[in-house]
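Fold in tokens:
===
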Amino acid sequence: MLLLAVVGLIVGSGLPAGAVDRTRLDVAGISSWAASLEVAGLDTDDAKAIRALWGEFVTGLPAQAQCLLGNPPVIEANWNMSPRAAYAPSISTLYVKPGDVERLVVFHELAHHLDFTCGAADAIGLEFRDAQGISASKPWWQDGSPVTWPAEYFANAVAVSLGEHSRHGVTAAAVEVVSVWSGRTQPPPEPVPPLTLDEPGAITPRLL
């Protein structure tokens, strides 16, 4: 299980004043933004892989692309971590081990950036907890073992929605909540209430 490295909490969303709305950027447009992602301490191959994964991550979450591209993380090498990768919300920094930039590992930590930067807990926190079978009163993070945090389930659900796997027991319902919020799938249609003979709809004539 990958751990979320926490230095403190920040919450940010939206683009800087005057920024272009890039919610629906195509792959080529996102790739050009990915090239400018700040990467420190990695060799050329790892840096190239990270930038490609960032572009793929943003492309796969169209409803949150504007938020992500307006608030990119910093990617920094760290040889001395016990987890394979970690995310520090207070400084929007994703730490990776050189030579270990597996897609699942990077996507999990980028999902933490998505969560804290784009407001997942506020937007879908209760719905996600319900879909995952977690108590509505359970704090999103820093409560009990990290493997019980909704934030960890969320990060895995994002990775699963992007085609990865998880041993964290993420439910299909939780993945669906994430997929709808991120724009990967459309929300289900609102159910139409059944009509009865004595309670016709607004445009349905009463049957005599």
In short: The CA atoms of residues 10 and 90 lie 5 Å apart.
